[in-house]
Amino acid sequence: MPLTQRHFFSAACISPLAKGLNRRYPGTSADRPFSFRIHNSKLVSFWQTLLAGFESGAVSWNGGSGIINNATGTPAHSGSWKAKLAGTGATRTDNLYQQVAIPATAVSATLSFWLQVTTAETTTSRAYDTLRVQVRNSGGTILATPATYSNLNKGSGYVQRSMDLSAYKGQTVQVFFVGAEDASLQTTFLVDDVALTVQ
Ligand SMILES: [Ca+2]
């Protein structure tokens, strides 16, 4: 657990479970809320989410206008805001990304988010419309595509997805979502509560 003495004393002086305090994870450049848990007077875990969420709107995220929205017709998983990629029934590609430095000292780095897929496609075997989750370097080059979802993942509610990004410790990367739709039959990808959690 890559804690500094400053973190330890901050934790020990407050409460057994604290959340929402702004601290800077060692090796990162911005203060963000962090959480920790104390058991038997010992700090047993410490974690921090490095990505900014959607509740402030399109702040911190890059991509096409309107992707991050609070339209009530496509509800968020939590709060009012979420990202909506594709969903037009016409050929298009929506990009959404945030750049983040994953500290070299992190023990683990896990990307998680909640995804809901609705579609007018009826196939049970062909992925016509896709949402790719990519890791790109700061120049935009694709390093990996840890997950791809499609119209085949349709469902009536949000489902939590997660993937291990610990291979990118010590790197500045773009967490990148690409929603691509073919020429007919809409598929909507709703993404919310994106978190990159390091411990
Ligand atoms: Ca389609």
Describe this structure in words.
This protein has two domains: 5-49, no CATH class; 62-198, Jelly Rolls (Sandwich). The termini are close together. By secondary structure, the protein is mainly beta. The strands form two sheets. Strands 1, 2, 3, 5, 6, 8, 11 and 13 form an eight-stranded antiparallel beta sheet that branches. It is globular. It has one helix at 5-12; strands at residues 17-23, 32-39, 42-49, 62-63, 68-69, 82-86, 92-101, 109-119, 130-137, 142-150, 159-164, 172-181, 187-198. The longest helix is centred in the first third of the chain and has 8 residues, at 5-12. Mean pLDDT is 87; it is low at 4-14. The relative contact order is 0.23. It has one helix and 13 strands. A hairpin with an 8-residue loop joins strand 1 and strand 2. It binds calcium ion.
Number of strands: 13
- Structural class by sheet pairing and helices: mainly beta
How do the SSEs run, as a string of H and E?
Answer: HEEEEEEEEEEEEE
- Integer average pLDDT: 87
What spatial form do the alpha-carbon principal axes imply? globular
- The CATH architecture of the largest domain is Sandwich
Oligomer category: single chain
Low-pLDDT stretches are 4-14
Distance between the termini: 7 Å
User: Under the CATH scheme, which class of the largest domain?
Assistant: Mainly Beta
Number of domains: 2
Which ligands accompany this protein? calcium ion
The CATH topology of the largest domain is: Jelly Rolls
Strand-residue proportion: over 45%
Helical coverage, percent range:
under 10%
Describe the sheet with the most strands: 8 strands, antiparallel
Q: What's the Cα radius of gyration? A: 18 Å
